[in-house]
Amino acid sequence: MPAKNDGPGEGAAPSKSEQTRALILQTAMRLFQERGYDRTTMRAIAKEAGVSVGNAYYYFDGKEHLIQGFYDRIAAEHQVAVREVLDRETDLEARLAGVLKAWLDIATPYHEFAVQFFKNAADPDSPLSPFSPESEHARAEAISVHRSVLAGAKTKVPEELRDILPELMWLSQMGLCLYWIFDRTEGRERSYRLAERGARLTARGVALARFRVLRPLVRDVYELFTEFLPGMTKALPDPAKRKAPADDGRPAGVG
After folding, report:
1. What is the CATH number of domain 62-226?
2. Does the pTM exceed 0.90?
3. How many of the other CB atoms lie within 10 Å of CB of 194?
4. How far apart (Å, rounded) are the C-alpha atoms in residues 112 and 96?
5. Lowest mean pLDDT segment, chosen from 111-120, 159-168, 192-201, 233-242
6. Helix ranges (DSSP H) in the chain
7. Residue 97: per-residue pLDDT
8. Where exactly does CATH 1.10.357.10 map onto the chain?
C-alpha cells in the first residue's frame, strides 16, 4: 500500500492532516541521518514527532513508505526547481545541465543519509530501489521532467525516439546519482562537472539521432537496459518465479 497522501490542492493552505504527515516525514529523515536507516524504528519516529505509533502508521505503512514519501518530495521539489531553466533555455545541453544541477542542489542536504541507506536501495528486491514498483510515482515524475527537457528544446527529436529518450535520460541521471553518493569532493564539485559533461554528451547524441542510420543504435541501447537492468526488465519473466505446470496425471505431450 502506498504512503497516504492527504495533500492540499496547489496554492491551498496545508491541512492539519498534511502538516502531521509532513512532520512525521521530516522527523524520520532527521532520525535516519542521525541514527541510520536500519537503527531507526517507527516507534522512535512517532515519539520524536509527538504522535502516537498508530498515527504514524496511519500515514505511512512502514519505514519503506517513508522513503517513498521522501522520493515523492524530492521529485516534487525538482519539478518546481527546473521551471526557471526550462522557461529560459531552448538549447538542449543547457536545459539538461540545468535540470541535473538542480537535482544535485536539492539532494545536497541528504548526502550522508543517501550514503547510509544506499545498501538497502541497491537491493533490486527492496521497495527502496528507484526501480521498484513502490517507487513508480517518483520515477514517473522524474522521467516527465526529461520529457519536458526534450519537448522545449530547439533540437529536433525524431518521433520514433520521443518515448524512449526520456527514460534513457533518467537512467543517466541515476548514474549521476550513484556517482554523487560516492563523491567526496568539496561541495560535490565533481558531480556538478559530471552533470555538465553528461548533458553535453547527451545533447550531441540526440542531435546525431536525426540521422536515420543511427536511430536503431538508440533503440538497441534502450532495449539493452529494459531487458537486463534489474527492475527495468519488461520482456522476460524471472525463471525462478515461473509456476510449474500442474500435474494432471497424463504423460507429457498428451493433450
Report:
1. 1.10.357.10
2. no
3. 18
4. 25
5. 233-242
6. 16-35, 42-49, 53-59, 63-81, 83-88, 92-107, 111-121, 136-151, 165-182, 189-208, 215-228
7. 98
8. 62-226
Encode pLDDT of 130-158 as tens digits: 888 888 889 999 999 999 999 999 998 88
Report how far residue 138's alpha carbon sits from residue 170's, in angstroms, rounded to the nearest whole number.
Answer: 11
- Domain 17-60 in CATH 3.30.450.40: no
Is residue 2 predicted with pLDDT exceeding 70?
no
Distances (CA, A) of 39 to 53, 63, 177: 17, 11, 24
Q: In the chain, which residues fall in CATH 1.10.10.60?
A: 17-60
Q: In degrees, to the nearest 5, what angle opens at C-alpha 98 toward C-alphas 96 and 104?
A: 105
**Which three three-digit cell numbers place residue 47?**
515519539
pLDDT digits (tens, 9 = 90+) for 196-226: 999 999 999 898 888 888 888 888 888 887 7
* Distances from the Cα of 137 to the Cα of 10, 87, 115, 134, 250, angstroms: 18, 24, 23, 8, 46
The Cα–Cα gap between 132 and 127 comes to 5
Query: Would you say how long the chain is, in residues?
Result: 255
In the numeric block, which cell numbers belong to residue 80?
518546481
